[in-house]
């Protein structure tokens, strides 16, 4: 089947806010030849990465919007625009393949419309960009609400955050220190002809010069390394893990931080991982299996205590559900799927999970709160609210050379060829 038609069928439900790209894309990949999968991924991720800008162009050129049942055609228009503007596909090939895809969607009637729209973009490119550049959504390639919120929260950083969100992220690895050192693994990569370098803030982190298929990484199948952003690798050190401790990883899927905990301190007493969704819990088990690690995995709600055996933990990681706006580079559909009204309920959920897990922490214990968000409403304000109501919760400032210090915790912004946007705070529980 035509790759553009497969992409349009995958993107239609995402654009219609019925699915995420992580849900839609795997099905689409199964429908095409292995040799075409990289192109399909590039088209799907690229179209979602530039969706606000592409939508502005489509709205300018379309006389009337597509009907709900024709979201696949709208997706075809947008991915056609993306090819013309951002890909190296020859224009004639991009146009002909995109127009032909309408036939495979059983919408032969739309071929003339698609051809006209794509050729109008070619012809009127300069004037369209000049007209639309005054519109924030086009200029900054983000929804208006997100631009305004970032501008309000981070008046000195918002433009840099928006710019980074439209870039492709680097591929970063975490070396399993139980099987290799970072220096040794860098040598293995060099021997395999894979250019890479050490990263500044994680002692076990490596960044590849160019992303590669994980299957060609030395020893990947045997757990020598895992793919994990540098910011996410910081939790292991912040937990200050010691032998014999009981550790809880709440909201643990897909298991990257959990596995890092087990690699970082192999002599822990007991480790529990809690995850609400069954499918995501399967990802935890897969990661544990590949790395030959063991933890108790419980499918349950971290905001309730019905699953808890009553034995307190020495260390707790609350990697809370969040808007994920700090990882838009890796999940570009977040720009489209996330809405302004989502933030307040998320903050309430984060506070509920934090309060529930706090009762499970030993006096003298340490809790690390983390999100992949850059919105203070989900980060420092949650911690501020929590410490005001929980008298035995003491905020411990994080002394580090990464991120920026906040009244509560430290905030990282997405960096060019560096880490994602992330937030950490450390809380100590007072002795009774």
Automatic annotation (TrEMBL):
Phylogenetic classification of the source organism: Bacteria, Pseudomonadati, Pseudomonadota, Gammaproteobacteria, Oceanospirillales
Gene that this sequence comes from: rsmB
CDD domains assigned: AdoMet_MTases (cd02440)
EC numbers, comma separated: 2.1.1.176
UniProt KW Transcription regulation keyword: no
Domain of life: Bacteria
MF annotations from Gene Ontology: methyltransferase activity
Provenance organism: Amphritea atlantica
One Gene Ontology biological process: methylation
SUPFAM superfamilies referenced in this protein's UniProt entry, alphabetically: NusB-like, S-adenosyl-L-methionine-dependent methyltransferases
Catalytic residues (positions): 372 (nucleophile)
Ligand binding (S-adenosyl-L-methionine): 251-257, 275, 301, 319
Gene3D superfamilies for this protein: Helix hairpin bin (1.10.287.730), NusB-like (1.10.940.10), Sun protein, domain 3 (3.30.70.1170), Vaccinia Virus protein VP39 (3.40.50.150)
Protein name: 16S rRNA (cytosine(967)-C(5))-methyltransferase
């Amino acid at each position: 089947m035509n790759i553009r038609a497969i992409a349009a069928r995958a993107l239609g439900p995402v654009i219609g806010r019925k699915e995420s790209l992580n849900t839609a894309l795997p099905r689409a990949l199964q429908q095409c030849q292995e040799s075409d999968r990289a192109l399909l991924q590039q088209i799907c991720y690229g179209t979602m990465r530039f969706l606000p800008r592409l939508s502005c162009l489509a709205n300018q050129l379309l006389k009337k919007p597509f009907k709900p049942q024709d979201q696949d055609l709208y997706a075809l228009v947008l991915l056609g625009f993306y090819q013309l503007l951002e890909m190296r596909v020859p224009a004639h090939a991009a146009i002909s393949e995109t127009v032909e895809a309408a036939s495979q969607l059983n919408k032969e009637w739309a071929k003339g419309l698609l051809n006209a729209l794509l050729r109008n973009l070619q012809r009127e490119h300069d004037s369209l960009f000049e007209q639309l550049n005054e519109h924030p959504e086009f200029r900054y390639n983000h929804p208006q609400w997100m631009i305004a919120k970032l501008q309000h929260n981070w008046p000195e950083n918002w433009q840099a955050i928006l710019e980074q969100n439209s870039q492709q992220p680097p591929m970063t690895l975490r070396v399993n220190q139980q099987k290799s050192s970072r220096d040794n693994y860098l040598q293995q990569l060099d021997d395999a002809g894979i250019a890479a370098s050490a990263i500044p803030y994680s002692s076990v982190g490596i960044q590849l010069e160019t992303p590669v298929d994980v299957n060609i990484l030395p020893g990947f199948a045997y757990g020598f390394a895992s793919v994990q952003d540098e910011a996410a690798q910081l939790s292991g050190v912040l937990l200050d893990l010691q032998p014999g401790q009981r550790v809880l990883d709440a909201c643990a899927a897909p298991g990257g931080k959990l596995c890092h905990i087990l690699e970082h301190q192999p002599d822990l007493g007991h480790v529990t991982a809690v995850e609400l969704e069954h499918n995501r819990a399967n990802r935890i088990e897969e990661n544990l299996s590949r790395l030959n690690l063991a933890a108790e995995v419980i499918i349950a709600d971290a905001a309730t205590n019905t699953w808890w055996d009553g034995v307190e933990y020495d260390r707790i990681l609350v990697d809370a559900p969040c808007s994920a706006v700090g990882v838009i580079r890796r999940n570009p559909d977040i720009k489209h799927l996330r809405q302004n009204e989502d933030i307040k309920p998320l903050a309430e959920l984060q506070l509920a999970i934090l309060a529930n897990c706090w009762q499970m922490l030993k006096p003298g214990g340490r809790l690390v709160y983390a999100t992949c968000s850059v919105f203070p409403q989900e980060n420092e304000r949650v911690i501020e609210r929590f410490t005001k109501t929980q008298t035995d919760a003491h905020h411990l400032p994080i002394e580090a050379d990464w991120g920026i210090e906040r009244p509560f915790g430290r905030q990282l912004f997405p960096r060019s060829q560096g880490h994602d946007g992330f937030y950490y705070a450390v809380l100590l529980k007072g002795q009774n």
